[in-house]
Design brief:
Length: about 375
Protein backbone atom coordinates (compact mmCIF):
# COMPACT_ATOMS: atom_id res chain seq x y z
CA UNK A 1 0.00 0.00 0.00
CA UNK A 2 2.88 2.40 0.82
CA UNK A 3 4.59 1.58 -2.56
CA UNK A 4 1.40 2.55 -4.43
CA UNK A 5 1.24 5.85 -2.57
CA UNK A 6 4.88 6.57 -3.46
CA UNK A 7 4.17 5.84 -7.13
CA UNK A 8 1.15 8.13 -7.01
CA UNK A 9 3.30 10.90 -5.51
CA UNK A 10 5.84 10.48 -8.34
CA UNK A 11 3.10 10.77 -10.95
CA UNK A 12 1.82 13.93 -9.28
CA UNK A 13 5.32 15.43 -9.35
CA UNK A 14 5.62 14.64 -13.06
CA UNK A 15 2.24 16.24 -13.78
CA UNK A 16 3.25 19.36 -11.89
CA UNK A 17 6.50 19.54 -13.86
CA UNK A 18 4.55 19.20 -17.12
CA UNK A 19 2.23 22.01 -16.12
CA UNK A 20 5.25 24.18 -15.36
CA UNK A 21 6.63 23.46 -18.81
CA UNK A 22 3.28 24.36 -20.37
CA UNK A 23 3.33 27.65 -18.50
CA UNK A 24 6.80 28.40 -19.82
CA UNK A 25 5.69 27.58 -23.36
CA UNK A 26 2.67 29.80 -22.95
CA UNK A 27 4.92 32.67 -21.92
CA UNK A 28 7.15 32.07 -24.87
CA UNK A 29 4.12 31.97 -27.12
CA UNK A 30 2.91 35.25 -25.71
CA UNK A 31 6.29 36.81 -26.34
CA UNK A 32 6.26 35.42 -29.81
CA UNK A 33 2.91 37.00 -30.48
CA UNK A 34 4.11 40.29 -29.18
CA UNK A 35 7.19 40.03 -31.29
CA UNK A 36 5.70 39.56 -34.68
CA UNK A 37 8.63 41.34 -36.09
CA UNK A 38 10.87 38.39 -35.65
CA UNK A 39 9.22 36.85 -38.62
CA UNK A 40 9.25 33.38 -39.86
CA UNK A 41 12.21 32.29 -37.81
CA UNK A 42 10.39 32.76 -34.59
CA UNK A 43 7.27 31.11 -36.02
CA UNK A 44 9.33 28.11 -36.98
CA UNK A 45 10.93 28.08 -33.57
CA UNK A 46 7.50 28.29 -32.01
CA UNK A 47 6.24 25.41 -34.11
CA UNK A 48 9.23 23.36 -33.09
CA UNK A 49 8.73 24.16 -29.47
CA UNK A 50 5.02 23.40 -29.77
CA UNK A 51 5.75 20.04 -31.40
CA UNK A 52 8.29 19.23 -28.74
CA UNK A 53 5.80 20.22 -26.06
CA UNK A 54 3.10 18.07 -27.64
CA UNK A 55 5.47 15.09 -27.72
CA UNK A 56 6.42 15.58 -24.13
CA UNK A 57 2.75 15.91 -23.15
CA UNK A 58 1.99 12.63 -24.95
CA UNK A 59 4.89 10.92 -23.18
CA UNK A 60 3.72 12.28 -19.86
CA UNK A 61 0.16 11.08 -20.58
CA UNK A 62 1.40 7.60 -21.43
CA UNK A 63 3.58 7.55 -18.32
CA UNK A 64 0.69 8.76 -16.21
CA UNK A 65 -1.61 6.11 -17.67
CA UNK A 66 0.91 3.32 -16.99
CA UNK A 67 1.53 4.60 -13.48
CA UNK A 68 -2.21 4.81 -12.87
CA UNK A 69 -2.72 1.24 -14.08
CA UNK A 70 0.15 0.03 -11.88
CA UNK A 71 -1.31 1.93 -8.95
CA UNK A 72 -4.76 0.41 -9.57
CA UNK A 73 -3.25 -3.10 -9.72
CA UNK A 74 -1.27 -2.60 -6.53
CA UNK A 75 -4.27 -1.10 -4.77
CA UNK A 76 -6.50 -4.02 -5.88
CA UNK A 77 -3.94 -6.56 -4.69
CA UNK A 78 -3.59 -4.84 -1.35
CA UNK A 79 -7.36 -4.56 -1.03
CA UNK A 80 -7.74 -8.28 -1.79
CA UNK A 81 -5.08 -9.15 0.82
CA UNK A 82 -6.69 -6.88 3.40
CA UNK A 83 -10.12 -8.33 2.60
CA UNK A 84 -8.79 -11.90 2.96
CA UNK A 85 -7.11 -11.14 6.29
CA UNK A 86 -10.17 -9.29 7.45
CA UNK A 87 -12.41 -12.24 6.47
CA UNK A 88 -10.16 -14.71 8.35
CA UNK A 89 -10.03 -12.44 11.35
CA UNK A 90 -13.80 -12.05 11.36
CA UNK A 91 -14.25 -15.84 11.01
CA UNK A 92 -11.85 -16.49 13.90
CA UNK A 93 -13.49 -13.80 15.99
CA UNK A 94 -16.91 -15.26 15.21
CA UNK A 95 -15.75 -18.74 16.32
CA UNK A 96 -14.21 -17.35 19.51
CA UNK A 97 -17.34 -15.34 20.16
CA UNK A 98 -19.55 -18.42 19.62
CA UNK A 99 -17.36 -20.50 21.97
CA UNK A 100 -17.36 -17.74 24.58
CA UNK A 101 -21.14 -17.42 24.32
CA UNK A 102 -21.52 -21.19 24.67
CA UNK A 103 -19.31 -21.24 27.78
CA UNK A 104 -21.16 -18.25 29.12
CA UNK A 105 -24.46 -20.02 28.53
CA UNK A 106 -23.19 -23.12 30.36
CA UNK A 107 -22.04 -21.00 33.28
CA UNK A 108 -25.36 -19.23 33.32
CA UNK A 109 -27.07 -22.63 33.51
CA UNK A 110 -24.83 -23.59 36.44
CA UNK A 111 -25.49 -20.26 38.11
CA UNK A 112 -29.22 -20.73 37.54
CA UNK A 113 -29.07 -24.20 39.11
CA UNK A 114 -27.08 -22.83 42.04
CA UNK A 115 -29.60 -20.04 42.41
CA UNK A 116 -32.41 -22.60 42.53
CA UNK A 117 -30.52 -24.61 45.16
CA UNK A 118 -29.93 -21.46 47.19
CA UNK A 119 -33.61 -20.61 46.92
CA UNK A 120 -34.59 -24.11 48.04
CA UNK A 121 -32.08 -23.92 50.90
CA UNK A 122 -33.45 -20.54 51.91
CA UNK A 123 -36.98 -21.95 51.92
CA UNK A 124 -35.79 -24.91 53.98
CA UNK A 125 -34.06 -22.60 56.43
CA UNK A 126 -37.23 -20.56 56.66
CA UNK A 127 -39.23 -23.74 57.26
CA UNK A 128 -36.73 -24.81 59.90
CA UNK A 129 -37.01 -21.45 61.61
CA UNK A 130 -40.79 -21.73 61.62
CA UNK A 131 -40.49 -25.25 63.02
CA UNK A 132 -38.13 -24.11 65.77
CA UNK A 133 -40.37 -21.14 66.55
CA UNK A 134 -43.37 -23.38 67.20
CA UNK A 135 -43.05 -25.36 70.42
CA UNK A 136 -45.10 -28.34 69.26
CA UNK A 137 -43.36 -28.51 65.89
CA UNK A 138 -39.98 -28.14 67.60
CA UNK A 139 -40.85 -31.05 69.88
CA UNK A 140 -41.81 -33.13 66.85
CA UNK A 141 -38.52 -32.14 65.20
CA UNK A 142 -36.46 -33.29 68.21
CA UNK A 143 -38.59 -36.42 68.52
CA UNK A 144 -37.97 -37.23 64.85
CA UNK A 145 -34.19 -36.85 65.11
CA UNK A 146 -34.10 -38.96 68.25
CA UNK A 147 -36.25 -41.69 66.68
CA UNK A 148 -34.01 -41.84 63.59
CA UNK A 149 -30.89 -42.26 65.74
CA UNK A 150 -32.50 -45.00 67.87
CA UNK A 151 -33.97 -46.86 64.89
CA UNK A 152 -30.66 -46.82 63.05
CA UNK A 153 -28.70 -48.16 66.03
CA UNK A 154 -30.95 -50.74 67.68
CA UNK A 155 -32.96 -53.73 66.42
CA UNK A 156 -36.71 -53.85 66.81
CA UNK A 157 -37.87 -55.11 70.17
CA UNK A 158 -35.05 -53.36 72.03
CA UNK A 159 -36.87 -50.02 72.23
CA UNK A 160 -40.35 -48.53 72.27
CA UNK A 161 -41.52 -45.00 71.60
CA UNK A 162 -44.14 -43.40 73.86
CA UNK A 163 -43.69 -46.19 76.40
CA UNK A 164 -46.11 -46.06 79.36
CA UNK A 165 -44.60 -46.42 82.83
CA UNK A 166 -46.35 -47.57 86.00
CA UNK A 167 -47.10 -43.95 87.00
CA UNK A 168 -48.83 -43.40 83.63
CA UNK A 169 -45.95 -41.21 82.41
CA UNK A 170 -45.07 -41.62 78.75
CA UNK A 171 -41.44 -40.80 77.89
CA UNK A 172 -40.51 -40.18 74.28
CA UNK A 173 -38.45 -43.37 74.09
CA UNK A 174 -37.60 -46.32 76.32
CA UNK A 175 -34.57 -48.49 75.50
CA UNK A 176 -34.66 -51.92 77.14
CA UNK A 177 -31.37 -53.14 78.61
CA UNK A 178 -30.58 -56.81 79.37
CA UNK A 179 -32.16 -56.56 82.84
CA UNK A 180 -35.38 -55.40 81.06
CA UNK A 181 -35.38 -52.09 82.91
CA UNK A 182 -35.90 -49.29 80.35
CA UNK A 183 -33.49 -46.42 79.84
CA UNK A 184 -35.69 -43.32 79.38
CA UNK A 185 -34.92 -40.70 76.70
CA UNK A 186 -36.71 -37.33 76.67
CA UNK A 187 -36.62 -35.14 73.52
CA UNK A 188 -38.58 -32.07 74.74
CA UNK A 189 -35.78 -29.56 75.20
CA UNK A 190 -36.78 -25.97 76.28
CA UNK A 191 -35.37 -23.98 73.36
CA UNK A 192 -37.10 -20.61 73.90
CA UNK A 193 -34.66 -19.49 76.60
CA UNK A 194 -31.63 -20.39 74.47
CA UNK A 195 -33.04 -18.49 71.48
CA UNK A 196 -33.71 -15.49 73.73
CA UNK A 197 -30.09 -15.63 74.90
CA UNK A 198 -28.89 -15.62 71.31
CA UNK A 199 -31.14 -12.69 70.40
CA UNK A 200 -30.03 -10.60 73.40
CA UNK A 201 -28.31 -7.33 72.48
CA UNK A 202 -27.48 -5.69 75.80
CA UNK A 203 -25.78 -7.02 78.89
CA UNK A 204 -29.02 -6.77 80.86
CA UNK A 205 -30.90 -8.80 78.27
CA UNK A 206 -28.18 -11.46 78.30
CA UNK A 207 -28.35 -11.74 82.10
CA UNK A 208 -32.12 -12.12 82.02
CA UNK A 209 -31.91 -14.70 79.22
CA UNK A 210 -29.20 -16.66 81.06
CA UNK A 211 -31.34 -16.73 84.20
CA UNK A 212 -34.27 -17.96 82.12
CA UNK A 213 -32.07 -20.72 80.61
CA UNK A 214 -31.09 -21.93 84.05
CA UNK A 215 -34.67 -21.81 85.28
CA UNK A 216 -36.25 -23.57 82.28
CA UNK A 217 -33.62 -26.31 82.00
CA UNK A 218 -33.61 -26.85 85.77
CA UNK A 219 -37.40 -27.22 85.77
CA UNK A 220 -37.28 -29.65 82.84
CA UNK A 221 -34.57 -31.72 84.55
CA UNK A 222 -36.69 -31.91 87.70
CA UNK A 223 -39.71 -33.05 85.68
CA UNK A 224 -37.69 -35.80 84.01
CA UNK A 225 -36.29 -37.01 87.34
CA UNK A 226 -39.74 -37.05 88.99
CA UNK A 227 -41.67 -38.65 86.13
CA UNK A 228 -39.25 -41.05 84.49
CA UNK A 229 -36.89 -42.26 87.24
CA UNK A 230 -38.77 -45.00 89.13
CA UNK A 231 -36.70 -47.12 91.49
CA UNK A 232 -36.72 -50.77 90.53
CA UNK A 233 -38.63 -50.13 87.31
CA UNK A 234 -36.38 -47.88 85.21
CA UNK A 235 -32.66 -47.39 85.02
CA UNK A 236 -30.98 -45.06 87.49
CA UNK A 237 -30.16 -42.58 84.70
CA UNK A 238 -32.32 -40.76 82.16
CA UNK A 239 -31.22 -38.98 78.96
CA UNK A 240 -32.34 -35.47 77.96
CA UNK A 241 -31.85 -35.14 74.18
CA UNK A 242 -30.73 -31.78 72.74
CA UNK A 243 -31.33 -31.82 68.93
CA UNK A 244 -28.51 -29.33 68.19
CA UNK A 245 -24.76 -29.68 68.67
CA UNK A 246 -24.26 -25.90 68.90
CA UNK A 247 -26.82 -25.56 71.73
CA UNK A 248 -25.18 -28.48 73.53
CA UNK A 249 -21.79 -26.73 73.27
CA UNK A 250 -23.30 -23.47 74.53
CA UNK A 251 -24.72 -25.28 77.56
CA UNK A 252 -21.38 -26.88 78.43
CA UNK A 253 -19.40 -23.70 77.86
CA UNK A 254 -21.70 -21.16 79.51
CA UNK A 255 -23.93 -23.18 81.86
CA UNK A 256 -21.73 -25.82 83.43
CA UNK A 257 -23.64 -25.43 86.70
CA UNK A 258 -26.85 -26.49 84.92
CA UNK A 259 -25.12 -29.56 83.47
CA UNK A 260 -23.70 -30.53 86.87
CA UNK A 261 -27.11 -30.05 88.50
CA UNK A 262 -28.66 -32.35 85.89
CA UNK A 263 -25.96 -34.95 86.57
CA UNK A 264 -26.70 -34.84 90.30
CA UNK A 265 -30.37 -35.39 89.46
CA UNK A 266 -29.37 -38.52 87.44
CA UNK A 267 -30.28 -36.80 84.16
CA UNK A 268 -27.62 -36.73 81.43
CA UNK A 269 -27.87 -34.06 78.71
CA UNK A 270 -26.84 -35.56 75.34
CA UNK A 271 -26.38 -34.15 71.85
CA UNK A 272 -27.09 -36.15 68.65
CA UNK A 273 -23.48 -37.36 68.55
CA UNK A 274 -23.52 -38.43 72.20
CA UNK A 275 -26.87 -40.16 71.74
CA UNK A 276 -25.39 -42.12 68.82
CA UNK A 277 -22.48 -43.10 71.07
CA UNK A 278 -24.84 -44.13 73.86
CA UNK A 279 -26.92 -46.21 71.44
CA UNK A 280 -23.74 -47.92 70.22
CA UNK A 281 -22.74 -48.75 73.80
CA UNK A 282 -26.24 -50.10 74.52
CA UNK A 283 -26.08 -52.21 71.38
CA UNK A 284 -22.75 -53.68 72.52
CA UNK A 285 -24.16 -54.35 76.01
CA UNK A 286 -27.12 -56.20 74.50
CA UNK A 287 -24.78 -58.15 72.26
CA UNK A 288 -22.62 -59.15 75.24
CA UNK A 289 -25.74 -60.20 77.17
CA UNK A 290 -26.87 -62.36 74.28
CA UNK A 291 -23.39 -63.87 74.08
CA UNK A 292 -23.40 -64.62 77.82
CA UNK A 293 -26.84 -66.24 77.53
CA UNK A 294 -25.62 -68.25 74.56
CA UNK A 295 -22.47 -69.21 76.52
CA UNK A 296 -24.58 -70.51 79.43
CA UNK A 297 -26.70 -72.47 76.99
CA UNK A 298 -23.60 -73.85 75.30
CA UNK A 299 -22.16 -74.83 78.71
CA UNK A 300 -25.36 -76.69 79.58
CA UNK A 301 -25.37 -78.44 76.22
CA UNK A 302 -21.72 -79.41 76.68
CA UNK A 303 -22.66 -80.96 80.08
CA UNK A 304 -25.43 -82.98 78.42
CA UNK A 305 -22.97 -84.02 75.71
CA UNK A 306 -20.49 -85.25 78.34
CA UNK A 307 -23.25 -87.29 80.00
CA UNK A 308 -24.11 -88.82 76.64
CA UNK A 309 -20.44 -89.61 76.02
CA UNK A 310 -20.16 -91.26 79.46
CA UNK A 311 -23.21 -93.45 78.79
CA UNK A 312 -21.83 -94.27 75.35
CA UNK A 313 -18.54 -95.35 76.90
CA UNK A 314 -20.31 -97.63 79.39
CA UNK A 315 -22.34 -99.22 76.62
CA UNK A 316 -19.23 -99.70 74.49
CA UNK A 317 -17.52 -101.44 77.41
CA UNK A 318 -20.53 -103.72 77.86
CA UNK A 319 -20.53 -104.40 74.14
CA UNK A 320 -16.81 -105.15 74.36
CA UNK A 321 -17.53 -107.68 77.14
CA UNK A 322 -20.22 -109.30 75.00
CA UNK A 323 -17.79 -109.40 72.09
CA UNK A 324 -15.15 -111.00 74.38
CA UNK A 325 -17.61 -113.65 75.57
CA UNK A 326 -18.70 -114.27 72.01
CA UNK A 327 -15.06 -114.59 70.92
CA UNK A 328 -14.43 -117.14 73.68
CA UNK A 329 -17.52 -119.11 72.66
CA UNK A 330 -16.42 -119.01 69.05
CA UNK A 331 -12.95 -120.21 70.06
CA UNK A 332 -14.49 -123.13 72.00
CA UNK A 333 -16.69 -123.94 69.02
CA UNK A 334 -13.67 -123.89 66.71
CA UNK A 335 -11.79 -126.22 69.05
CA UNK A 336 -14.74 -128.65 69.09
CA UNK A 337 -15.06 -128.41 65.32
CA UNK A 338 -11.34 -129.15 64.94
CA UNK A 339 -11.67 -132.20 67.18
CA UNK A 340 -14.67 -133.41 65.22
CA UNK A 341 -12.72 -132.93 62.02
CA UNK A 342 -9.78 -134.90 63.39
CA UNK A 343 -11.99 -137.71 64.54
CA UNK A 344 -13.70 -137.80 61.15
CA UNK A 345 -10.31 -137.93 59.52
CA UNK A 346 -9.25 -140.82 61.68
CA UNK A 347 -12.46 -142.64 60.90
CA UNK A 348 -11.95 -141.93 57.20
CA UNK A 349 -8.38 -143.27 57.37
CA UNK A 350 -9.49 -146.66 58.84
CA UNK A 351 -9.11 -149.52 56.20
CA UNK A 352 -10.15 -153.18 56.54
CA UNK A 353 -7.71 -155.76 55.05
CA UNK A 354 -6.17 -159.27 55.56
CA UNK A 355 -2.88 -157.90 56.71
CA UNK A 356 -2.98 -157.37 60.43
CA UNK A 357 0.10 -155.22 60.28
CA UNK A 358 -1.64 -152.85 57.93
CA UNK A 359 -4.60 -152.66 60.25
CA UNK A 360 -2.31 -151.92 63.10
CA UNK A 361 -0.65 -149.22 61.08
CA UNK A 362 -4.02 -147.77 60.21
CA UNK A 363 -4.92 -147.57 63.86
CA UNK A 364 -1.50 -146.54 65.15
CA UNK A 365 -0.83 -143.80 62.61
CA UNK A 366 -3.86 -141.63 63.53
CA UNK A 367 -3.10 -142.12 67.17
CA UNK A 368 0.46 -140.91 66.61
CA UNK A 369 -0.78 -137.85 64.79
CA UNK A 370 -3.23 -137.25 67.64
CA UNK A 371 -0.43 -137.46 70.19
CA UNK A 372 1.67 -135.10 68.15
CA UNK A 373 -1.23 -132.63 67.91
CA UNK A 374 -1.82 -132.88 71.70
CA UNK A 375 -5.39 -134.08 71.20
Amino acid sequence: MSDGLLNLAGVVVIVVAGLAVLCVLALLLARALRSRDDGAQRAAEFARVQADTTARIEAMRDLLASRQAELARVVNERLDSVTHHLSQSMHTSRQHTAESLQKLNERLVVIDSAQKNISELASQVTSLQSVLANKQQRGAFGQGRMEIIVQDGLPKGCYQFQFTLSNNSRPDCAVFLPDQRPLVIDAKFPLEAVMALRDARTEEERKLAAARVRQDIGRHVSDIAQKYLIRGETQDLALMFVPSESIYLELHEGFDDVVQKAMRAQVVIVSPALLMLAISVIQQIQKDARMRAAADQIHAEVGHLMDDLRRLQERVLKLQQHFGQANDDVRQILISAEKVEKRATRIQDVEFGDNKADADNVIVAPMARQLEAGG
